[in-house]
Amino acid sequence: EDQVTQSPEALRLQEGESSSLNCSYTVSGLRGLFWYRQDPGKGPEFLFTLYSAGEEKEKERLKATLTKKESFLHITAPKPEDSATYLCAVQAGSGNKLVFGAGTILRVKS
Amino acid sequence: DAGITQSPRYKITETGRQVTLMCHQTWSHSYMFWYRQDLGHGLRLIYYSAAADITDKGEVPDGYVVSRSKTENFPLTLESATRSQTSVYFCASSENGGFPDGYTFGSGTRLTVV
After folding, report:
1. Which backbone phi and psi does B56 adopt, to 5 degrees?
2. B29-58 pLDDT tens trace
3. Nearest-CA neighbor of A89 among A25, A29, A9?
């Protein structure tokens, strides 16, 4: 059974204080790992897809990396508008379904 | 407007009643999905569809029914609502099963069963 575990459950940062969110996964035949951002009362919004170990992708203050067992979402010099829940998901095997982790709630204070 | 829309945004229903949540997308995406989101569980897949008239069960399908007679619509029906089905429901769509741009999600329906 595919499993995705995100840590920490919640993270509080001061504006400008860089940190990382972790997503560890156990799957058979990873096809892709996805990061989403979710704001309160809204649906998840796609951020990145990573396909293979060693791959990195960046968008503004966010950088996602992938190893064979986990992915990190690095947040550099965060701003209050980066506050959201960040979700990690994997797609594995022959199906087209995404399996999600429970998410990390990020709060950035000014 | 282009996009994926869910209705209603909020719904309160009584135990035992049938309720249908609607999902409509304007892109003609092949794939559509229904997830529920609960504290501590994250998003869990209920049902999905690869094309019109093709549907399949996800992780938590019991108590739910779906249909897809048209590519753009994917309604989710709770045949006899129970309190454990109180949740936020998200519909999503994708052209290529998630690659390269993941799924596009709707804004969700918050369902309360009393």
Report:
1. -150, 155
2. 999 999 999 987 889 999 999 999 999 999
3. A25
